[in-house]
Amino acid sequence: MKVTLLNHSEVLIELDHHILLFDEYQAPLTINKDKPLYIFASHSHGDHFSRKIFSIDHPDKHYILSDDIRANNQDYTFVKPHQTITIDDLEISTLFSTDLGVAFIVKVEGQTIYFAGDLHDWDWPGEPEEDNTWQTTHYLEEISLIKEPVDLACVVVDDRLEENTFKGFDEFLEHVNAKVLLPIHYFGHYRISKELSQHLESVNTKTDVLLPEHANHEFII
Q1: What is the side-by-side order of every strand in the sheet holding 37-41?
Q2: Residue 37 near residue 17, CB atoms below 8 Å
Q3: CA proximity to 103, closest of 178, 153, 177, 37
Q4: How far is CA 60 from the centre of its chain?
Q5: Is the dihedral angle over the CA atoms 189, 190, 194, 196 positive or is it negative?
Q6: CB 151 within 8 A of CB 112
Q7: pLDDT (tens digit, 9 = 90+) per residue, 165-176?
Q8: In the 3-class helix/strand/coil scheme, how is the chain assigned residue by residue?
Q9: Residue pair 78/58 in contact by the 8 Å Cβ criterion
Q10: How confident is the model over 183-221, as pLDDT tens digits?
Q11: Model pTM score
Q12: Side-chain half-sphere CA neighbours of 141 within 13 A
């Protein structure tokens, strides 16, 4: 599996027979046209979705969009939280996002891939305690629904949360059996990878964590 963090939360995954693109909104793309392309958008926020995705040049493309996105095309598939659908040989399940839209769980080619979108424990310093408690409670409820091992998990790490930057990350590691984890939602602040590497020294986990150092960072897993 080739995994590329294009930028922020834009992730391109190439498997043997499929290509998955998540939350593309700005990066220039070079995509293999010999495999079918499945384009996912977790919600309508501008750092996760752009209508430019509808003009991606590919002969065999399929759109799977959160139902808060407004688009008029009968060929697009719209999903809501806690739904499971099948498209070709992909099984796609969704979770409720603690911000907007959905998170995706995609099973394809014997692999299970989780993509958070904005499902996260948004425990903002200075916000009312009841709001942050709601975030933690619902985040844990949603990720606890992931019962099977995950081969690749794309999980939010956002340093705007200050002292809580790694809280949701740690909770995911604790509650989900993931083989490989890719942090997303950096807003281009790749120094976070160094901070995350240091943080991992104090975390007991068997999960391999990919540490992107720049835009278009490619990993083979």
Answers
A1: 77-79, 61-66, 37-41, 19-22, 10-14, 2-7, 217-220
A2: no
A3: 153
A4: 22
A5: positive
A6: yes
A7: 999 999 999 999
A8: CEEEEEECCEEEEECCCCEEEECCCCCCCCCCCCCCEEEEECCCCCCCCCHHHHHCCCCCEEEEEECCCCCCCCCCEEECCCCEEEECCEEEEEEECCCCCEEEEEEECCEEEEECCCCCCCCCCCCCHHHHHHHHHHHHHHHCCCCCCEEEEEEECCHHHHHHCCHHHHHHHHHCCEEEEEEECCCCCCHHHHHHHHHHCCCCCCCEECCCCCCCEEEEC
A9: no
A10: 999 999 999 999 999 999 999 898 999 999 999 999 999
A11: 0.97
A12: 10
Task: Retrieve residue 100's tokens.
Answer: 């907007």
CB burial readout 54-88, b (16+ within 10 A) else e = eeeebeebbbbbbbbbeeeeeeeebbebeeeeeee
User: What's the token pair of residue 212?
Assistant: 């992107």
Token digits for 101? 């839209």
| Chain centre distance of CA 206 | 20
Q: Which domains does the chain have, with CATH numbers?
A: 2-220 (3.60.15.10)
Residues in the chain, overall count: 221
